[in-house]
Amino acid sequence: MPAYVMLMNLTEQGVKAVKEAPARIQSSIKAFEAAGGKLIAFYATMGEYDYVSIGEAPNDEVASAFALAIAEQGYVRTKTLRAFTVDQFAGIVKQLP
User: Fold this and answer.
1) Cβ–Cβ under 8 Å, residues 22 and 75
2) CATH number for the domain including 56?
């Protein structure tokens, strides 16, 4: 399955409701898995981003819909990166002219 790295920042609404964040995170994980995704890792982080997650989804459409569903709630803003393994990257490089 394709891999994705999601970078998240709390909105003002998210900061005000941060005590409920662990329950929202668990609910989001269940929704992602119900859509066919698999969470590999989730971290609350210090620095530029408040949360970082790594997951796999069946395709870009599922990953995009999930990112939109999270953003729609209003607690975080997301940036989603499509990630490639070393082997996948090697295959991409081999296709160069």
Assistant:
1) no
2) 3.30.70.920
